[in-house]
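debug: dumping io for the single-chain case to check the tokenizer round-trip. Nothing else runs in this session.
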Amino acid sequence: MMIRNIRLSMVEYHDILWDIGYAKTWEEATINLDDLYSEQPPLEDFLAWRDLRVMEECHWYGWFIDYWMEGGLMRDMFTHKITTSEHWNMLMEPTGYSRYQLDYDRVVGKDTIVTPSYDPHCGTNGDVTSGCAPVAVISSEKLIDYTEGPAETAAIANVLHNDERTGQYVIAPEAWDCIWEELIQNGKGLKTVYDRPGGGSENEYSFSSEMLEEMIHELDRLIAKYSGSEWNTKATANRVVFLLTEHRALIQIELNEVNTGMRKLTDKDFLGPKERGQRRELKLQQSEDHSEYFMIMEHQKLKENKHRDMRRLAR
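debug: decoded output
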């Protein structure tokens, strides 16, 4: 299982969606696969998507880790509760249902006792015949790091080497560092996110304290879960905790910088609904002529009149 910093994952995920035209189906996505990592998305597109999705995507990030660590156990990504096959199938069609329609209590029931069940893809008759639980956990950031990269590559190679299905095809260990150098240092092979023009710019974007706190909240949940007695004897769980603890520390530093003003946010940064509301109210208070306030009120009035006229026409 590959893990990337939750903050950087948000940026990369959006950019890939932009590359494939925000495709809703596999067929739509495959049409634009050649466009992956070819351009830097416009900032406006990035901001619009982020304001709409970032708070919920934090939970999807944690759900992804739970899914693989628990071998495909069916969970609701919003509450992290074990869920039913019916609800699971609805969740697997995120564009087919609204957030309201997917609500756990509405579909499953608040007090329903659910028998744990697993994604059929992870069973003996599924696509992953050996089960979905990871045999190793790899860090995306460490894999491209010039100091830690070779060791991370060796971790991948050892998994393949020790598997009877693939071991005979793995090249000798003395060549592993060479492979890493060719792929990472010399940039050979298929295009990756790091080949995107302006790549590595994820850290240039600012998130509001509201968003950073949501990321930390999700990381705290995962760290507490996989450091517990049920998990802490497993190497994969210990690796998850180690990596997420590193990521949490970095996000905490950024949150401190935002809260103390060391890292300045602008109205074009990723603010989140609470932060935007506070800034809008502050602007109205500081405006001597209150023109913005009256513009907003006038806009709201026009909207109300439009809806009223439409209701009249409908009669």
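debug: round-trip ok. DSSP finds twelve helices and two strands in the chain.
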